[in-house]
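Hi there. Long-time user, first ticket. I'm pasting a complex I've been working with (about 1384 residues overall). I'd like to know whether the download I got is complete or cut off, because the file seemed smaller than I expected. Thanks.
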Amino acid sequence: MKALVYHGPQKFAWEEVPDPKILDDTDAVVQVDTLTICGTTLHILKGDVPEVTDGRILGHEAVGTIVAVGSGVKTRAPGDRVLVSCISACGRCRFCREGRFGQCLGGGGWIFGHLIDGTQAEYVRVPFADTSTYPVPEGVSDEELVMLADILPTSYEVGVLNGRVSPGDTVAVVGAGPIGLSAILGARMYSPSHVVAIDLAGSRLDAAKRFGADHTVNNGEHDAVAFVMGITEGLGADVAIEAVGVPETFELCTRLVRPGGRVANIGVHGKPATLHLESLWTRDVTVTTGLVDTYSTPTLLRLVASHQVDAGAFVTHHFALGEMEAAYDTFRRAGETGAIKVVLTR
Amino acid sequence: MKALVYHGPQKFAWEEVPDPKILDDTDAVVQVDTLTICGTTLHILKGDVPEVTDGRILGHEAVGTIVAVGSGVKTRAPGDRVLVSCISACGRCRFCREGRFGQCLGGGGWIFGHLIDGTQAEYVRVPFADTSTYPVPEGVSDEELVMLADILPTSYEVGVLNGRVSPGDTVAVVGAGPIGLSAILGARMYSPSHVVAIDLAGSRLDAAKRFGADHTVNNGEHDAVAFVMGITEGLGADVAIEAVGVPETFELCTRLVRPGGRVANIGVHGKPATLHLESLWTRDVTVTTGLVDTYSTPTLLRLVASHQVDAGAFVTHHFALGEMEAAYDTFRRAGETGAIKVVLTR
Amino acid sequence: MKALVYHGPQKFAWEEVPDPKILDDTDAVVQVDTLTICGTTLHILKGDVPEVTDGRILGHEAVGTIVAVGSGVKTRAPGDRVLVSCISACGRCRFCREGRFGQCLGGGGWIFGHLIDGTQAEYVRVPFADTSTYPVPEGVSDEELVMLADILPTSYEVGVLNGRVSPGDTVAVVGAGPIGLSAILGARMYSPSHVVAIDLAGSRLDAAKRFGADHTVNNGEHDAVAFVMGITEGLGADVAIEAVGVPETFELCTRLVRPGGRVANIGVHGKPATLHLESLWTRDVTVTTGLVDTYSTPTLLRLVASHQVDAGAFVTHHFALGEMEAAYDTFRRAGETGAIKVVLTR
Amino acid sequence: MKALVYHGPQKFAWEEVPDPKILDDTDAVVQVDTLTICGTTLHILKGDVPEVTDGRILGHEAVGTIVAVGSGVKTRAPGDRVLVSCISACGRCRFCREGRFGQCLGGGGWIFGHLIDGTQAEYVRVPFADTSTYPVPEGVSDEELVMLADILPTSYEVGVLNGRVSPGDTVAVVGAGPIGLSAILGARMYSPSHVVAIDLAGSRLDAAKRFGADHTVNNGEHDAVAFVMGITEGLGADVAIEAVGVPETFELCTRLVRPGGRVANIGVHGKPATLHLESLWTRDVTVTTGLVDTYSTPTLLRLVASHQVDAGAFVTHHFALGEMEAAYDTFRRAGETGAIKVVLTR
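Hi, the file is complete. Here it is re-exported in full:
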């Protein structure tokens, strides 16, 4: 089959590789019908994730059709159409028992395109198929569904739920790239009074408006802290969601929140940040970090199926599987192309 | 009357000052029967808290007898014996409505010995007397009660409850001074499996054992992280409580917790700390900060009255009010004197 | 002044009475600008609430202008326009400290038109004015605001929050009178997948659609349990909200919920219901009851001010204050008049 | 092998039956080393549980040694010593994903001695062995461990956690049989101020004292409501735990709780109860029901292993497996024999 194979920093190719096979009796093999590209994979391509080694097939998001299952798979069968989640779950370890699948101790967690071959291929081996795939509900398109593989549960669990967004809240979202936009969409489910999107790029702030931001602040030009204080009687935001992944934006979040507020970090960080405990220690602030667990995926599936959430809104570009390299190019140059999520279909 | 008056860094004296009077109709004047000294006041004496100015009477902990009340005081009367809490609450603002009295926007919060004259005096004016004092329950001694003015609710709310200590947890308490010991006592109320006290001083670790630590680690001599990993199957503590207030101990806490764990900061910090987001971003860690609100004071009063909590265990030394300077000396030289809390009585 | 005075079952009149005066220093006197009529008052008129005695002025909902304050009122002044809440709060007792104002032990709770004279008058004495009124925010009309005096916080706290409505939930609301409609509006704030309104009257079900119900079931004609099972894979609703107040509808709620579901009772009950513990004991069901506390009023004010909640949607009829009796007649004959909430203005 | 076989109401015998075999690849066969008898089984013997049919082997609590595993069992192996839980979990269904294993939709839940053959035998087939057994920790005896098969997690989850017992609470436990005693032990983990045991039998109340009740009330002789009001300033208990299973005791619980209190039902009920909504509707009361999920079993194992919980305290009588009928006789006549839990060992 064909797959997107990593060959070290900045080197990858859509090339012929052997078809995947059932290795463990709880595996399924899934024909990939629809996939998307995640910003995390761009980090990998830069060489930022050393666990990813030469020869690894990339990608951790797909919708597809099961073509084979091991003897230990009980609730999935060939022909089933499924969402392949970015998180695999052994279903047996302490953390899986607690619904904290992202921290699975039994061989799961984030493994696709990381520790095992991923989904950017014609076929993919899916470990723990019973507990790591979701049947496709009726009336939902593949391109909506593939947004539930990573971006929607990540922003919802790690941003919205960790940040305890509640009705009437003022929510500041720092960073209006795909994950920030998804956090805005997720925050809106809880009827906040104000969602403020903060970014350096006007085009991303325009997108933020479309995804439900009430206010946008270009923090290259304006003082985001002053803006948020201005609409909150000088107290600050109830929740600040970090969706960039650099120290400056994290530190901005800690200045944006009110006493008793929450800072929910979603960003993928490569460097430490400074935590100003000399001012924060009295302010009753909660800071959370997290990898997605996908415990919310069934909820999000219900919301997409009942048309409460428009998952398709992220999709700006379409490609065929064989156009993988062009798709990456479009996604990488989002500033010029306006790409939010690109979708590839068989 | 006599009072302990601050005159700038390292200067203070037990000297004659005018008696306090009712200034607002919700004030009470309380004769101080019993008081204690808090580590925060030592910070003030070093000049670390610039809001405290020359002439200020220090102290924010007392048990006493009401001698006068303003016309707006409805539920307290002269002759009532009361606990004077370190936190005053206007009872009307947004944060008071939410039980977040420490963040009171109506003139309360931590004001005694800080923004107004404090309790280390023969008499003290107590604003918002209805909502900032607690009637003394029967069968509880003054010296037990005065521990509920600050140290017990602080460690309980900001350490134990913010850290969500739960039955079966492994709890690491970094710092075994008075506030750390109080956090150990508070954590025990939730039946953890293991409480690990970590400190550089053997004498404090001995005290930690007496207050309920199952394990002690001198982290000048031993690797505290390795110890905690060793008793938690390599995962880390469920909760790490910071009870020192320097960057190193805070950063130690973030290395001690397991994925999904909580770091509850109690320490008073003067400098920023480094938050290693490059490793923490995937680990589902929650970090909390906080000033005490004293919402738990009624609960703690019930626990002391029903002898579930031995508040008297903190008291190592007794003095008369007039021996204020000697009491400070003993408290300051805790390393030599073994002082945990010193109590002064009329 | 003129006021609506109760004279025993079925007897009341808009008649001349003495003007109210400040009795306690924390009182305000408020000129009533806008008021509405609550279903609870219809119960009183039937004689169902024996605490209400001959001579009592009825009503517990108003928006008005402060004309006088006692010396103990700190944060309100004559000329301030305020929402007068159905719940008064002393601000000092145990339950007020916990935000459970409806259970106030210090003389508050539900007292207007019940234990003291109420708001259906030209002027009303408001005890504990600092903690029982809310300043009118800019840009919100009186008729929107008066919906926050009772109906909106009641349905939100006692129905939506007690029932822990969450994104993706299926919510069954039994009873589509004013309080049920308000529960539908409140539930929508949490982005449920399905809101099912259940009632015997087609006109109320039509209103339910307008307030956001996705599905309506006339349970005189159809089997509501079967309908809900049909859209929930046979499991039942996540939340069932009782908004009628008779045993049959409560018992229906306990049959509508899934294992692990919540039954939130809002209805005012005059008789006991049967709790089928022989089937419920294994089903992990939570049943809640409650009187509104109005702890959510500040949140709801923010939501109305930011136009997230259309509080005006309830208002079907307008009257002048002097048309009180006609207004009652219209509200009472809601089946014919289509009245949801009637508003009276000075 | 020998097993205790049910043959219709009041008929059962310790008799020869075929050895169990692996039927599904996720099964294990476990040699039973230690078991106990549960009150629920007495209900079965009366014929109260019609799903249990002639020929069924009874029992749902055991500690044993694995002798065989199916090919799908990944984390258990022959020779492993394990706790066999009363609840089986498929590990794949919606409710298992949420930790609500007692409501398993995939063939688990309470099945032993109910829908499949149980543990009162020399060997038992254990479905879903990976997710339904727990490795025996070091330093814990079999007789302590077998208390974690049902009684301890049931009283802890369904009584203590559903009732949200918190430090300082007054907890009323109605019924001081084995499950009530276990609820007392569990409640103590949260440092309540007062635990009040209520029962008709003096011998059970004596046991309640030994398990940690501060107060006991014989409600055949004294008014339990008056007693609880007397120690709670007339408010009532924070939590009332129903541990009997008849309408009278449930209704007593609803009278014992304070406004804002919780009634946690553990009792197995055969008849409906009356819920006095006419008085409860204003009182902010939460009523919970539940079947144990055993999500707390890992926590309880840690607590027993660290000697925070004395699970052995329940064991009053010991028998050999072959003395099954004598053991039942002793357990049944608890009033005379003083039996709390009887333990049988190979």
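A couple of notes from our side: Chain D has two domains: 2-150+293-345, 153-288. Residues 153-288 of chain D form a domain with the Rossmann fold fold (CATH 3.40.50.720).
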